[in-house]
Amino acid sequence: MKNIQCPVDETHSPILIYDKESLEIIEANPAARALYGYSEDEFGLMTLTSK
Length: 51
Prior knowledge:
The protein has helices at 7-10, 30-36, 40-44, and strands at 16-18, 25-28. It is α+β, with helices and mostly antiparallel strands. The chain has one domain (16-51). β1 (16-18) and β2 (25-28) form a beta hairpin. The protein is globular, with a radius of gyration of 12 Å.
């Protein structure tokens, strides 16, 4: 099985992927985690309206 990495992970631009209805953050790429200072687990508990 070939390991395929998502291009979103390789970009230097912060990208958040979220659920359109609930606004829950599904994924935050490494650039977003570095910019905002949250871990992947912390982002998983947030919505776009979290403070």
